[in-house]
Structure formats: C-alpha cells, structure tokens
Hints:
The chain is α+β, with helices and mostly antiparallel strands. It contains 17 helices and seven strands.
Amino acid sequence: xxxxxxxxxxxxxxxxxxxxxxxxxxxxxxxxxxxxxxxxxxxxxxxxxxxxxxxxxxxxxxxxxxxxxxxxxxxxxxxxxxxxxxxxxxxxxxxxxxxxxxxxxxxxxxxxxxxxxxxxxxxxxxxxxxxxxxxxxxxxxxxxxxxxxxxxxxxxxxxxxxxxxxxxxxxxxxxxxxxxxxxxxxxxxxxxxxxxxxxxxxxxxxxxxxxxxxxxxxxxxxxxxxxxxxxxxxxxxxxxxxxxxxxxxxxxxxxxxxxxxxxxxxxxxxxxxxxxxxxxxxxxxxxxxxxxxxxxxxxxxxxxxxxxxxxxxxxxxxxxxxxxxxxxxxxxxxxxxxxxxxxxxxxxxxxxxxxxxxxxxxxxx
Length: 365
C-alpha cells in the first residue's frame, strides 16, 4: 500500500527549520520577507517561540529558499543549524535513548513530528554498516531542484545531531541520492566528509555500526519512555488534525490503484453532500480536482522511478482513459514525457554516481 503524502493543512509543527533557513539566507543578504513570501508567516511571528506552522507553509519557505539561494551550500548551512536543542521534545527523546537501537527506532518512528521536508523512513543493518533510507516529502520528483535542497538540508541536520550525540568525530560512510548530480557535485564530499553519489535508485545515508557500540551520553529509560508517549500521542492527534482535505487525500491514496472516485462517490463515502464536500475543501484552500491531481502525480512518479510498468499500465492504474491523456498530464506536471523522465534518470545513473545497491524493495509514496 502506498503511504499518503503529508497532511498539508494542520498547523502543528515548530518553526525551527523555517527560522534556520531565514537566518542562513539573511547572512547572504536575502531579506526574510522574501524567504517567507507566500507562506502566511511574518518575520515578527517567526520570532515567537510558540509559533506553529503547517507542512504547506514549510514547503513554501523551502521552495523560496531553494530559488533565492546564492550560495550552493545554503541547504547544508541551514541544516547544520539544527542541533539537538532546536528539536524540542524530539531532541530530548534522542538524547535520553537508553541504547543505539532505541535511538534508531525513535528516529524512524517520530522524525515526522519535526515537520521534515525529507527524513529517515527505514533503517537496515548488514552488521558492518547501517543504512537510513530517506524519503523526500516536499516533492516526489528527483528532478525538481527542491528535492535536492530538502534532502541536503535533512542530511546536514542528521549529521549535526549525530555529532551532538556521539561527538565531533562522527561521520557518514556515504550518501546516496536519487536526484541527478548538480554541476558542483565535486563539493559534496568536502561538505559531508564522505562520498556522495547521485542518480541512485534510493536516497540513503550509510553509517558505520561501530558508532552503535558507544554508550549514549545521558541515557534515561524513564524519561525516554515518557517522551515516546508524548510523541506517539502527537502522531495520533496529527492523523485527526488535517480536516477534510487530509481525509480526502488519505482516502484517495488508500483506494489506489483500484479506483479513483468522483467527487460524488467520495462525498457518499464520507456521508456528505457533494456541495458540502466542495465547500469544506474550499475552506481548506483546495479542491477535489487539485487533490486528485496531487495524488496522481505522486503515484505516477513513483511508478516510473520504482517499477517497470509501461506507460499504458500506469495510465490504467491512475484512471486515465488512455495513455495519451496520461502523457499530456505528465508533461504538464514535470515538463517531460514519461519516457523522457525514465530515460533521463537512467542517463543520470550512468554518470559519476556509483551503482545503486541491489535488493532494495520499491520505495512507497
């Protein structure tokens, strides 16, 4: 089953990542108002420690930052500001983890409560190395410049937090990124202190499991358990906080690929009149058509990246009457045909990046 994209509407996340971006671009002479444009967040509001923001607001700021950045290392610099002390209760949960295994489990289960544009979704271990599989949430398209910007921010943040936890000598073994190599790809090993491979099938951060043998600095089983309860309640509350748009988005994903309902059948499933559903979605700042397009786009990119399905098969899965209509829609979304998109990605993987590791299951949206 495909994982639903984040609920865009609930204002439940801290604004620390937005503040990090604003501060970093301000160092380069970019006005905070320009970075915050279109997000509904003012510079004065950002100074309030009680400010809560939505995923959509965070995504707007990240997209502005990616567009306005004058320093290629902007995302890395901003992510490096994300120390444990910037992560609130989540950071306290990491710090109090009794064991490395508890810490890893906490990261994978609860990193979404920090409002990440990208973050770890799975951890596997082969004995010598541990691998964090990342998911980029702000956009499903590795060719979108925002994809690399968000991934770079997230990896820099993880590196900073890991050094807070384990000491300044901590380093990654390597980073694998699905996005194409940028023109300045040669600078990445110096930034991250490890090889960075682009054009890979998955986004992954590899660590040396020797670090797992180091005891956490201030483990506390009781405190960690209490923090887990708080984080779990946040996750439960978040699932009910998104309003009608979030419910419709989740329902669309859950019903894929079996059927794409019309607004009338969706309204019936939610025990609403279609006019009521339209009105509620408008109050959430969206429409049923927009939500359907969003889900189709995410699934189309996922199928092209992770499967060998033909264009005709994908068109059928996504509810298009024929492959031509799907191709036209995909060009509108990405500027490429499905064939060009899949072929361009294959070309990127034959560049300077290392071969993608075998045996991994397809990622899920």
